[in-house]
Amino acid sequence: MFSKPNRFLMPSDLPKHLFDPSQETLFLSSNLGESYRQILEEIGYLTLALDKGKRQDGPIGGTSKTAASEHFALRFDGSCARVQLAALDPNDHLGETSNIIIQTFAGGRVGIMDLPCGAGAATIALLTTIAELRQAAILPRVPLDIFFVGGDNSQTALDYANQLFQKLQPSLNEQAIFLHLKLEQWDLFCPNSTTKLIHTWTEHALDCRENILVVANFSGFLHSQNNFKKAEERLGEIFRWAAYRNSNVIWIEPQMKKTTTMWESLKKSKSFKTIISIFQTNPSPVNSETLQTKAQFANPLELDIRNPVHLSLVKLERNKQ
Q1: Is there a contact between 81 and 309 (Cβ–Cβ < 8 Å)?
Q2: Which of 124, 182, 285, 304 has the greatest number of beta carbons closer than 10 A?
């Protein structure tokens, strides 16, 4: 199906409407940009989203409606760009990451658990990127059924995710991508809530050709108020299930001091060292540096505006034996 021996999707293959090498600029799917604009208009946050002065120090999210809405207005597009950067890897800095993503979404039944999913930025960016590559005839239009489970503590963010998925579903269907959604309010610190979410994943994503756990933009929360230590047991439960479901794991964060602190906490975690040994990892957060890259992206609300996007990434590849 693919002709490239080392990378399925070489940087030179990328269409300019997704990445323009002359400008070193990512462009989000136009369908995603339009859906995002429509929801911002509907909820009355488009003016805030267009306020350049507010973007640099935007909020990291929260459970209140205001916090979740401000985060959606100021951070959602950057979160999408960061995940698209991982999928396309135009600078060829991320090893097998792009291959894992392209293989995962090649077709058939695919299960995704996205935590914390927020307004769905990570999975939406992945699916709209695959759809654009299919539209450009770079990837084949093989029927792809996505069994998606997303958990987040903010019901407001989950509502935005649901609205975006619904708006994007027709354009995804045109590229033979079919969504089966489960969105659940999830409290990371609650054992019952986490077990319930995992149960939903195992029941919803049955008989899948591929499974993937996507973790994105979690460092802001885990870095604050000693939350990593408080959440370590629950995170361990999630990762064990991912491993025994033969899943790949992609964990994507911005390049920030708090991210470095979180990776260091992961390295020191005895429970995570045990979990990581289940995966074939290269590199792993225990014995190697994380992968990093950067670019800029065009603001989907104002395409002539450019914003930087940096990512720090850890991938755990499933044991294929």
Answers
A1: yes
A2: 124
CB atoms within 10 A of CB 21: 12
| Residues facing residue 249 across a β-bridge | 213, 316
Which distant-in-sequence residues (6+ apart) come within 8 Å of 247 by Cβ?
Answer: 111, 113, 211, 212, 213, 318
Which residue bears the tokens 């899948």? 208
**Which tokens hold the place of 262?**
């979180």
pLDDT in tens, 265-303: 777 776 666 666 666 544 444 434 578 999 999 999 999
216: nearest Cα among 288, 131, 313, 290: 313
β pairing state of 144-152 and 108-115: parallel
Q: What is the predicted pLDDT for the residue at 58?
A: 55
CA 55 to chain CA centroid, nearest Å: 20
Q: In the chain, at which residue ranges do the beta strands (DSSP E only) sit?
A: 19-20, 25-26, 108-115, 144-152, 177-185, 210-216, 248-253, 291-299, 302-316
CA distance 149 to 251: 16
pLDDT band at 40 (very low <50, low <70, confident <90, very high): very high
Share of the chain above pLDDT 70, in %: 86
Tell me the three state secondary structure of residue 73: helix
In the numeric block, which tokens belong to residue 292? Answer: 């990093």
Report whether pLDDT(210) > 90: yes
- Give this prediction's pTM: 0.91
